[in-house]
User: Which sequence fits this backbone?
C-alpha cells in the first residue's frame, strides 16, 4: 500500500512538473507531427498537457483503497464480495498495477521519443546541455518501458496457466 501511495505521489509530481512546463511555454506554437511528418501547428502547452491527462487517467487504475460498502451500494450491488477465497485469490489488483505501470511506461517512452527527435539536429527544438547524455537517459527510459510491458504480459500468462492447472487438478487430470 505504501508503494502505491508513493507511486501516486510520483505521478502527482510528474503532473505538476508538466503543468509548470506548459505554463512556461504558454502561447508557443510548434509543428504538430503525425507519422513522423509535419502536420498542423499546435500549441506546445496543448501537447504537454495531453501527457498530464494521460498520467491523470492512470490514477484510477492504481488499486487505491476504497470503501467497499459505499462502492457496492453506489453501483447498485447488494453487498461487497462475500467470498473470502475469491477475494484473496483474485489477481486483478496485481494486473491493474502492472497495467498502470505498463501504460505509464509507454507514455513516458512516447514522450522520450519526441524529446530525442526534438533535440536532434533535424528538429532543433530542444537544446539540452548534453545531447548524448540526454538521449542515453531517454533511451534508458524507453528500454524500461519494454520491461514494464513484458512484466505485465508475463504475469497475465502465468495467471492463465495457473488457472488451467487448477482446473485440470479439479477434474482429476493432475495428481
Assistant:
Amino acid at each position: 500500500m505504501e508503494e502505491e501511495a508513493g507511486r501516486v505521489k510520483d505521478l502527482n509530481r510528474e503532473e505538476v512538473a508538466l503543468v509548470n512546463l506548459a505554463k512556461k511555454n504558454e502561447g508557443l506554437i510548434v509543428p504538430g507531427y503525425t507519422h513522423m511528418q509535419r502536420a498542423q501547428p499546435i500549441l506546445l502547452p496543448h501537447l504537454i498537457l495531453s501527457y498530464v491527462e494521460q498520467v491523470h487517467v492512470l490514477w484510477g487504475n492504481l488499486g487505491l483503497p476504497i470503501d467497499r460498502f459505499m462502492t457496492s451500494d453506489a453501483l447498485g450491488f447488494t453487498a461487497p464480495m462475500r467470498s473470502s477465497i475469491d477475494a484473496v485469490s483474485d489477481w486483478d489488483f496485481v494486473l491493474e498495477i502492472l497495467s498502470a505501470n505498463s501504460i505509464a511506461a509507454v507514455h513516458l517512452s512516447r514522450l522520450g521519443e519526441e524529446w530525442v527527435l526534438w533535440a536532434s539536429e533535424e528538429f532543433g527544438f530542444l537544446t539540452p546541455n548534453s545531447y548524448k547524455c540526454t538521449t542515453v537517459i531517454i533511451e534508458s527510459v524507453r528500454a524500461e518501458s519494454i520491461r514494464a510491458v513484458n512484466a505485465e504480459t508475463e504475469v497475465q500468462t502465468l495467471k492463465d496457466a495457473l488457472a488451467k492447472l487448477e482446473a485440470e487438478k479439479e477434474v482429476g487430470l493432475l495428481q
